[in-house]
Batch of 2 targets.
Target 1
Amino acid sequence: MRALFRAFCMALVLLVSATAAPAVSPDELLEDPVLETRARAISANLRCMVCQNQSIDDSDAELARDLRLLVRERLVAGDTDTEVIDYIVARYGEFVLLQPVMALHTIVLWAAAPVILVIGLVAVFIGVRRRRQDAGAGTRPRGLSRDERKALDKLSGQ
Amino acid sequence: MIVELGHFALVLACVLALAQAAVGFVYWRDGGATARFVSHAAVMQFLLVGLAFAALVHAFMVSDFSVQLAVEHSHSLQPALYKFTSVWGNHEGSMLLFVLILVLFGAAVASRGRSLPHDLRTLVLSCQGLMVAAFSAFVLFTSNPFWRLDPAPRDGTELNPVLQDIGLAIHPPMLYLGYVGFSICFSFAIAALISGRIDGAWARWVRPWTLASWAFLTLGIAMGSYWAYYELGWGGWWFWDPVENASFLPWLSGTALLHSAIVMEKRNALKIWTIFLAIITFSLSLLGTFLVRSGILTSVHSFASDPTRGTVILAMLAVLIGSAFALFALRASALRSGGLFAPVSREGALILNNLFLSTATAGVLVGTLYPLVLESLTGARITVGAPFFDLTFGALMVPLLLLIPFGPFLAWKRADLVCVVQRLTGALIATAIISILVFAFMGFPMTLAPLGLAIGIWVMVGAVAEVADRANLGRVAPGESWRRVRGMPRTVWSTAMAHFGVGVMVVGVVCATAFETEIVTSMQAGDQFEVAGYTVTYSGERAIEGPNYAADQGEFVVDAPWFWPTRTVTSERRVYVVSQTPTTEAGILTYGFTQVYVQFGERFAEGGRVVRLWHKPNVVLIWLGALIMAVGAFVSLTDRRIRIGAPRTARGEQRGASA
C-alpha cells in the first residue's frame, strides 16, 4: 500500500517534471563540509512540494533540486540556519516545513500527546484510588474468595 | 464465463452474509441450531469468495484482457509472479483480497471455535457476517473488479513497475491478515457487549486471534518497511507518511490490547478498557485502510475525483464504528470491575504500558489527521512530517522502553519494588558493562545515540534476565535450572522473545539512524571509493534486457574489512517497456547485521556515473527485531492453554473433533 502510494507520488512527480532530476547529486554539494552538513540538516526538515511527505533531500523532483540549491546559495551568502529557513518559508509558506512551527494554530497538535498522557495518568490515579476505597468500605464485588481464586490461579497454570 | 462465475459467487456470498447476520442477531439465544447455521454460512462464504478470488486470479494469469482490471494493471509480458500479484496491486483487487481474508477469519472461527458457547459464537459470526455483507457490497457496487471491456484491447497497460517486486506478494496479504484479523477481536467485543458475557474466559477466547493478527501485522509492517528500503532507492526504512501511520496505528493499539487482555484474562480487571481497545483497534484498521483507499489521506483532491467511493466508505465507517461505540456506551456502565490490585503490581505495570501505548496511538493519529482538519477548518496548509513524529513518539517510547524489563518481574496483585530491583541488579550491571564496551568500541561518540543504544541493550538484557530468573540460574544446580527452563510455559518464552525483539529493533534503529555514512559522488569505471572501511570499486556498466524492461546495470566490487570476502554487487536503472517508467534497483550487500547499499545513478560528466553509497550499520536488526517479536507471538499461540482451547462450558455439546 505504501508502495502504491509512493508509485502514485512518482507518477505525480513525473507529470510535473518530465525530466526528473535525481536526489542530491554531486554537482550540488558544497566544497565546505561544514556548510554542506548544515545544508543537509536544513534540507531534512524541508519537504518537496510536489511529492507526498518526502524531504527535498530524498526527492527526485526538479522543484526539490531548486530548493536544495537555494538552501546552499543562502548558506554560502552567509545566512544562519534560521535565516535560511525563514527565507524559504517566506517564499513557499509553512507547508514546506516537515516539523510544524509551534504557534496558535498548531497548539492542539503539539499539546495533544502530553495532555492525553496527563489526563490518562490522572484517570488511572483516580481509578486506583476509588477502587481501593471501595475495597476499604467492604463493597468488594461478591465472587470467589481469596483461597478459591488462588486455587483457580494455580489450576490455570498461574 | 469464469469471470462471471466469480462475480456471481461474490453476489451470493454477499447475500448469504446478510442472511447470516440477520438470522444470527435475531435468534442468537436459541443455541445449537442457529450456531450451526451461522457456522455453515461462514464456511460457505469462504468457499464463495475464494471462488470469486480464484476467478479473478485466473483472469490475470491467462491475461484475459476483456477484464477491465487486468487491462489497467497487467500486461502479457509480465513474469507469472507479477501477473499473480497484480490481482491485488490495485484498489478493486485489494478490496476483494480484504473481503477474502475477512471470510477466511470467519470460517476459522466457525471451524475452530467449537469450544465457544453457542450464543457467543453465533454473535461473533453474525457480526463478521454483517461486515462481509457491507464490504462485499462495497466491492460489488463501487469497486467491482469483474467488469468486462468490449471490444477487448490486445494488451494491458502493465502493473506499476515499482510494484513489480516480491514485496507485493508478501506485504499486502500480511498486512491485511493483521488488519482484518482484528475484526475478530472487534466481533468478539460486540458479541460480549450484546450477550453481557465479559469475563476472563472471554479474554482467553480472544487471545489467540489478537496474537495472530498482531503477529501478521508486525510482519506486514516490517516487510513493507524493508520493501521501501530496497525498492525506493535511498535506503529510508520509515517515513512517517500517512499510509505508514495508517498501518502503525492499529499496531500500537493492538499491542495495548494484547497487554490489557492479559490483565483481563488473569485478573478479571480492565474489562471496559479491553473491550474499548478491541473496538478501537479494528476501527483504526478500517480508518487506515479506507482513508488511504479513498485517497483522503494522500490528497484531498483525489477524494474529490471519486466522490461516490469516498462517501460510501465514510458512511460505512461512521455506521460501523458509530454503532459499536453506541453499544459500548450503552453497556459498558453495566460492567463490574473485577480483581483488586496495588499500584505497584503486574497489573499496574500493564496499565502504564497501556497508558503510553494509547497516548502514542492518539499522538500519531492527531499528527496524521491534523493537517487535513486544519486545512478544512482554516484553509492553512501545514505539513506534519518525520521530525515531528520522531520527537513526540520518541519521547513517549523512552519511558515505556525503560519500564519493559520491570513488567514481567512484578508479581500480580501486589509487588515489592525493592525486591524487583534487587532481582534486576544483575541485568542492570550487565547492561552497564555491555553499553560501556559498545561505546568504547565506537570511541565514545559525543551524541545522544549511545543512550538510545543503552536503552535497547537494557530491554534485551531484561528479557534474558527474566528467563534466567525463572530458571533460578546460578542459585540452583545447572541441571535443576535446565529442568526449570524446559518446564517453563510457552507464554513466558513468548513474552521474553517479543520483548527481546523490541530491544533488538531499538538497537537497529539507533545504529542505522545515528551512525549511517552516506557518500554521493561521481565515478568512472575503475574508480574506488571508501565508505566506513569498505572499499567500493566501480567496474563498469552494461546494458541488459529483462522480461519487460531494459536496464543499465552497474557492477561494483566491494572489499570489506576483517574476514569478509570480496564480493560483487550490481545496481540497475531500469526503464519498463510498456509504461516507460524508470525505476532503480539498489545493490545491497549484507555483512552480519550491517549493509552496504549502492545506488547506481544517472550519467554524469564524460562516461561517469553518479553513485550513492551508504554504510548502514546494524540496519538489519530493525527487521530482525520485528521478526523476533512476531515469532514470539506465534510461540505463544502454541502454548498448551491455547492449543487445547479455552475451558468448555457444561452447556456446550462435547464433540470428538473439537479443536
Target 2
Amino acid sequence: MRLAYVWDSRKCIACMACVVACASANYPELMREAKPNPQWNWLAGNIRVIVGENGGKPELRLISCQHCENAPCVSACPTRASYIDRRTGLVRIDHSKCIGCKACLVACPYGARWLNPATMLPEKCPGPFCSKLIENGLNPVCVEVCPAGARYFGDLDDPESPVNEELRKHRVERMLEHLGTNPKWFVITG
Amino acid sequence: MARSRMDLKRLGSVGIPLVLVLAGLAMVIYGFAKKEVELHAINWGLLVSGYTYFALVAGGSILVEAIHTIFGYKGPRGEHEKLVRLAIWFPIVSLLCAWILILADLSRPLEFWRIFAGFNPDSRIAWMALLYTIYIAALVAQLVFLIRTSDEERVTHKKIEIALASAGLVAGVLLYTNLAQVFGTMISVPGWYGAYLALYFLTYVVVLGAAGHALFTMTYAWKHKELREFVSHYCGLVIASSVLMLGLLTMWGVVTAWYNPQAWATYSMIVEGMYSALFWGVVIALGIAATFLLALYATLRRSAVAIVSASTLALIAGFVNIYLTIVVHQTRVPEVLSGLYRVAEYHASTAEILILLGTFIIWPSLYALGKAILPLLPGEKPKKLLIFK
Amino acid sequence: MKTRRRDFIKLSAASTLAALTMLSVQPHSVVGRMLAKQLLLEETSKKPLEGLRFVKTFCGMCGALCGIRVGVDSSGRPRVVLPLNGHPQRGLCGRSATAPWLWDHPLRLKKPMVNEMRGEARFKEVDWDTALNGIASKLKEIVSKYGYKAIAITHHDAWSYYMPLFSYLFGTPNVISHVSMCHANGTVARGHILGAGGPPAVDPDYENASFLVLIGRTLSTASMGALHRARTNKGLQIVVVDPRMPEIGFGDVKWIPIIPGTDAAFALSIIYVLLEEELYNADFLKKYSNAPFLIKPDGKPLTEADVVEGGDPKKYLVFDAKDGKLKDHKVALDPDLWYVGEVTLKDGSKVTVKTALTLLKERASNYKPEVAESITGVKASEIRWVARKLALSNGVVDDTWYIARNWNDYDDVRSFLIINVLLGNIDKPGGLCFQESSKFPSVISVKTIEGKKVAETVYGARMPEELFGDVTKTRVDRAKYPLTLSTFDAVLDAILEEKPYPIKALFIIGTNPIGRDMNTRKIIEAYKKLDLLVVIDIMPTDDADYADYVLPDTIFLEREEITSTKWTLHASVQKQSKVVDPPKGVDARDALWIMFEIARRAFPERAKALGWDDKYADYEVYKDEFLHKLDEAILSSLAKAWNIDKEKLKTALEEEGYYVLSKKKYYVRPYKTALATPSGKAEIYSLAALAAGLDPLPDYKPPPAYTPPKAPDEFYLVNGKSPLTSFQASLMEPLRFVGDRSVWMNPKDAERLGIRDGDMVELEGIDTGWKARVRIRVTERVREGVLFAYATVCGRMSKLIPKDYFAREGVNPNWFAKGYVIPIVGGGASNSSVRVRKL
C-alpha cells in the first residue's frame, strides 16, 4: 500500500475547515494553550497556509507532510523514530523513540513539521486522531470535512482508489519535485 | 603545620573547580527545565552552535595524535612530550562540554541511548554518536596509557601508543567531516547544502584546537619559560598557517553562495546585511587577520602574550562564525512556491544562555579539576585508583 | 587513613554543596517537568481516540445551517465537527470547524448580568429571577406610558422562527431584523421580478449548471451545501465579478475586478448585448414574461380597462403577431416582443405604446459595452464574452445573498434577474430555480375561528384579538420604507426622533447592530436614549456594553430544533439534536424561554394566551414539556401537509438528521404555476415597482451612499465575507491565526503611497470622520483604488473583551458608513470611502 493525498487547487476555497478540523481533532489540548504552535505562530495542527503573490492571481498552497518516498526526515532521524510505515507507505513518528534532536524538523524542505510546545517533540500529519482513522480504513479529517470536494486520499497501488482516479484525469504537480524527495502529495493544476 | 597548609591548598585546588563544575551543571539543568518553544523559532540555535564550537575545539587532539605520536614531533627540547597529557586532557574536557550542550538541546536527553538501539545508518547524527564513542574511547585510552606508562614503558609499547593515536586520528577526521555533513546534507537549508563544510570544519579543528590548546596549556606553561616559549612558537605556527586557509575557505563559501540565489538569501544577511558588522569586524578582521598577525608574532618572537591574544580572538571569532553559520541560514529557507521564503527568527532565550554560560563555567573548571586530581603535569605520577594522584 | 577520611570529608562536603545548589533551583520543577513530558507522551499515544460519540445536527456558526455531525469525547466536550454526508446542504467551513471552541470559551456569557452603568460595561452577575423580574417591571412601566409598540426586538437567524410569536407575545409589530444590512435589496428585487422571497427562494441549480456568473456573491462565504454542489459539478465554469477576489477565486474561477457600485451598469451592458445580438430566449419571453406587455407613455401597462369601458385592469394587453390584434396576454398566440405602435384608448385619444422589452433595450442602450467599460472598469470585450457565454452555455447569474453595499443594489439584483429571464433559464435544470416549499408551519398565524379572529400558534394555543395589542399597528420601518422587509435604521429614528412613535425598549437577540449596521455613532446615541436595552447572546458584543441586562443564551450545540433546510432546491427539513449541555459554570438558557418568562412576569395574560404555563418557569420542565410540545406540533403539521407517517418522519430526523420531503421538480414556475408578481409572469418590467413609485426598469445610478474618492489618498472601502466570518466565529481561538484582520490594498496603490505589506495606517471615514488604525495587506486580490476589509471579524470595542484580544484588531467597516437607506425599498449600504494616512 502507498497511501497518498491529492489536493485540487482548482476547487479549494480557502475555507480553513481542514486547517481548523485537523487542530481540533488531533491536538485539542494544545489548542487551549496561549501559544499552541509557536514555531509556526499558528494553530496546533498539521496544515499551514501560504499565499504567493507574484504579480498575477495570488496562489494558495496548503502544506502538510508530503509523505515522501525518499523522505529527508527519515534519513536524518538517528533513532528511527521517524520511519516509513511499510504497511501504508506513510511517513510516521514513533514518539517513544524520539530524543528530540530536531534533525527531522530541519531536514524537511516543506516545513511540514512543527515542534509541540508541550512535549518539545516533532509533530506532523497524520496526527493521533487521523492515524486512528487511517488505521480503520477511513479518510483523515481534512479529506472528510472539505466542502469543495478538493481533497482525496487513497492507495496509489490500488487502480480504483480515489487518488488514482484523479491522477488519471488531471494535470498534477508535486511540490519541490527537483529536490528528489518523491512526495506522495499531488496538486491538481488543470 | 606545613602538611595542613598543603592539605588546605589541595582542598582548594580540588574543591573550587568541583564546586564550579557542579554550579555549571546546576545552571545547565535549570536552563534545560526552562526551555520553551519560541515564536517563529528555528530548530538549531545557541545550544547546537555551542556544541559545534566545543566539538571543533576538541578536535585539536590531532595536534597530539598526528603531530606528536604518529609523526613523532616532540619539540626541540621535548616540550611537546612534557605537555602531552595536558594536551590530551583538554580535548576530553572540551568534548564533555560539547556533549553537555548537545544533550541539553535534546528534548529527551536521557533517551540518547536510543540512537544506538535504533541506529539509522542514513542519519549523520547516528554516526556522530558512534564516532564520538570511538573518539573519546581513543582519547581516554591514550590518556590512561600516558598516565600509566613511564617513559621507558612507552618506548616498549610504542605500537600501542601509535595504534591508539591512529584510531583517534581516523575517528577524528571521520567525526569532523561527518559533523560538517550533519548540516551539509540538508537540502532544506541552501546556506549549508554541499560538500564544502567538511573542509571548513577540518580547518576549524586545526585553528580552534590549537587556539584552545594554547590558551589552556598556557595556564601551566606560563610559569615555565621553555614551555611557554614552545607553546607560543608551536601553536602560533599551527594557527598562523591554518587561519589563512580558514580565511580562504570562508570567502570560498561566500563566493559559492553568490551564485546560488537561495543560499545568497541568507549569506547576504551575513556579508552585507544585519550581521555584516559581526562578520567583517569579528570573524574576518579579528578572527582571521588579527589572529594571523598575532600568531605570526607569537611564532617568531615566541611571545606568550601574542599567542594568548591570538588564541582568544580565534576562539571568540570562531564561536561567532559558527553561530552565524548555524543560525542565520535557518532563518530564510525556500518555500514551496518559488520566490517565496519561509522566514524564521532566532533570539537566544534566557534558558539557553544559562545553559551555555553553565557550560563555559564547566569548561575551565573541569580542566582545572583534572589538573588537580589527575597526574597531567610533567613529572607527576599516578598514586591512587590507577590514574589519580 | 587520615588521607582517606579527608577525602571522604571533601567528597561529602562537595556533594552536600552540590545537592544544596540543586535544591535551591527547585529540582521538583525540573524533575517534575521532565516526568510530565514523559507522561504527556504516554498520554498522547494511549488516548482513547475511538471514544468519540457523534451527534447529527446542523450548524449554527452562521445563518446557513449546514448539516454536520459533531464528535464528543468521553469527558463530554465537543471535539471535532465533520460533515453530514447525504444531507442536501452538507457542511462544513472554517467557522463550523471552530465550534468546539465556542462551547467553553472563556469569554462566553455565563450568567445573567445587570449593568450598573450603561456604556461602561460595569456588569454584576445576578440570578435569573432578579434579571427577569427587573426587565418585566421596566417593561410594564414603558408599556403603560407608551404602549406595547414602544417595544422593539431585533434579531438575526438565531430564534428567527419564533420572532412572529414574540411579536404577539409582547403585542408589538416592531420585530425588525438585520435584513436591511443583508439581503433586503435583493429580496425586494426577487419579489418584483420573480415573485419570490428571500435568498433561498430562488437559487441557481449549482449541481447542473454549466456557466455561473457571481456578481456581488462569492458562494464561498456561506452555505457549504451550495458550494459543495457547485464545486463537485465537474462541468461548471464560474466567473466572479467583484472589486476584490473572494476565496472562490483561488480556484479555477475567472475573477473580473469591477469598480464598486457599478454592477448595474455591467449587468445592463450584458442585457444590451443579449438583446442586440438576439441571444435571448424569445419563446420564454413571449410566453412566460411580461416582455411583450405594451407600455404607455406614462409608464403604466396597457390593460383592457384602458381600451374598453368596464374592461378588466388585470388583463394586460399585447400585440398578437398571429393576427395583428391587441389581445390579453393570456390568450395571445404569438406576442410581438418588439411592437411599437399607436393605440386608441377608450376615450378616443391615441398613444404610442412600446413593449416592455423595447423599453428595456432603450435603457440598456445607455450601457453599450464601451460605455460600460468607462463606468465599471471592465473591458468591453470581457462584457461581451460573459454575455455570449451566458447565452451559448445556457448560463445563470446568481440572484445574490448579502447585498447591502452601495445603495443601488436593488437595481443591481433586478438586472441580474432580468438577465436570467432573458435567457429563459428559469426553473430549468442548471438555471435559476425555485425552491420547493417544505410546507413548514408558521409558528403563529391569524385565523378566524367561530367568527372570531385569533392568533393560533403551531402548538394550538390561541390568543384572542383583544390581546393583540399593537401588533397590527404600522411597524416603524414600514412607515418609512413601505417595501422593506426590515430596516433597523428606522428603529434608531424612532428611538431618537420618536417618529412615527417612540421606541423605548429594545431586545437584541443573537445579533449585534454595532457590528452589522451602518452609522455606529447613531446606534450608540440611540442606545443611550432607550429606557430599556436587553441583550440576549452567547458571546460579548459591542452592543452589550450599553445594555441594562445581558442574558446568556444557549448555543446551537445545546439546542434541539426542527427547521427547513435553507440552501437546497428540494423540500427538506432538518433536525438540530442536542450535542452537549452547557459547561459547568455556564447558566445559559434558551432565548425562547427567556422571552416567555419575561412576558409571564410582565403581562401574564399574554403569556398564558400563547400557551405558556407557569410550570415552564422551571427550565427543565420547559425543556421536557414545552419544547417537546413544539416539536410534536411541527412534526404533526409536516406529516399532515405531506401525507406521511409522523413517526417515520420523527425517526428519520432523529437518526439521519434530515428528511427530504420532495425532490426538486423542474418546469413548474412560471410554466405550470403563476408567479407571485402582479402579472403572474417573470417581470422584466416591474409592475410592483411601478406601483410603489419606483422605476420599473433597473438603471445604473452612482451611489450617494458615500462621497466618491477623488484624491490620491482616498479609496473606496468595500467589505465582504469569507468562510471564516461570523460574529461568534471571529472570537474563536483558531481565528487568532486564520482570521484576516487587515485591510487590503492593491500593490500599485501601495507603491504610490509608499506603503509596504504589514504597515500600520490610519483610515479616516470621509463621511463619518471616524478614525482607526489598521494593518495593511498589500495584495493583488483587490482592485486599484479600492480597499477591502472583512465584515464581522474585527474592530471589536466591547469592554467585556480583553484589551489585548486579537478580535480588537482591524476595523469594523460600518464605522465609516454614512447610514444611507434606500428610499421605499429600505436597504442599507455598508460600503464607504476613506482617506489613508501612513503612520
